[in-house]
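Format is sequence with structure; example below:
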Amino acid sequence: MRNGVREFYVAPGSRSTPLVTAVAAHSDTTIHTHFDERGTAFMALGYGKATGRPAVWITSSGTALANGYPAIVEASMEGIPMLLLTADRPPELRDSDANQTIQQQAIFGSYVEWFVDVPTPTDEIPPEYLLTMVDQALERSRAGVVHLNCMFREPLAPDQEDYSPLLSNNFKQWKDSKHPYTSYRHDLQPTTSIVDELASQLSKAKRPLIVLGRLRTSDSSVLNRLQKCCKAYDAVFIPDIGSGVRLATLGELGIGHAEATLYGDLPEALRPDLVMQFGASPVSKRVNALMQSATYVVVDDRNRKIDPGCTVSLRVVADPVAVLTALSVDRTEEARPEDFHGQSEWQGDWKRAIDASSKWADTDLGTALTEQTTAHTLSRCLSSDLVLAVASSNPVRHLDLCAITDGKYVPVVSNRGASGIDGTIATASGFGDGHKRRPVVLIGDLALLHDLNSLALCRERGTIVVVINNDGGGIFSYLPIRDYPEVFEQYFATPHGLSFKHAALQFGMSYSQPASIGELTESLNTAFSQSGAAIIEVRTDRGENLEEQRRILRAMSSRLDSVFRAVE
């Protein structure tokens, strides 16, 4: 508690009894229980994504640990703080054919920042060892996952056996205080030289583009700083759906429908000479491709390579929001050359493109209920007291492509570190816990089937699940394998023929299946106005969705061609 950790996600088990009872003894902790270890791990992940602070995942021994692997991989890839307290058998039961005993030592390999095999409790272990280990574990969890594997002998239930180790004066002072045994201090502010160098690059660029990529935590103030930075340096910006600000009102310099705008032959007037990215790589393939032809700078505090195309010329390891804040101060007098004012033509060209994309979203998406208009309609109906979780594959791409650009700030989570489709509902639950807001989920049918157990978490949180059911893996229709029908349908599309109506009934959720945009809007508004959990199922056709995607992208390309031919 002294380190600020209060959220614990627990699945029932015998060997973890000492851990659970110890946490339960503290009145200022919150314990979230769920019968599925995979779900509790994703919940802890979602909480870390929401707050930037670690939640604790407690699990029993054996294969219970392995169920957490996907969430731990995602946390590692995104640098999300997470603390694992796993129960284990004592040393004498290892490699002995003892029940429910596996090799838990370093089971998660390089996906954890630190692993400790914590010995069985005994008076011979000085308490200072445990205190300093816990403080170090929380310090290291700032960068990702830390795993403390705790061995226990029976009896496991609480008892009154005396614990009487030798106690030092340092321990006694700690016991009488309210502070950690070992405190750590950090200065995450970027240096003046870093900010000056980035400001210089922005000032010298004729066509600067700022990309706000995946951020580990975000709030509405980030958008304001981004807009100020663009005004200071005559830049325009693209906010990725993982930035957390894509659903807010972007203003005249924000390129919300980037994937559509960049489709086809991009006019030369819209090609940047500098791309400065804050955060990790965006969802859009075309945004990523755009970076290959410009000077490419990446700012992010994850100390690893963020450069899928191997074209980054400057990699700054620093807090991206802190750097953006420093740059958002108008440094015109000290950083810009005298002829800088001619660069406003760049913003003017992009304003025309942004206006075209707004008309595209209002008109060319059409009036039929499609996967694309589902994402658009959902973004329009969201209110600022909600959080949104978006599954990988098509849902996150459609929301990034089609969401409105004049909405309200809504925190968004999507597991794009490893881009798995599992754990979406559970992640949404933890993300909602962290923000203390009601979760909304946009998810595909296969992703929901992967996480069906987690519907049990929805009732107490009032979660609203919007599921796109195209009877299989719609994302595979975008790949060349679709042209091989002899293997495509059975081995890739994997149709299941299932509806989620009875799943809603089983888990105590209301259910609707809208057939039009108007009915979807009504279903969403009804669900938002009530406190209960709901499943809203939108039925689509995979083949028609592919053709619809091609149609709307061609429509945007045609609009852009018309605008810039007229200018010429």
Notes: The chain has three domains: 7-175, 192-364, 371-554. The mean pLDDT is 92. The longest strand covers residues 82-88.
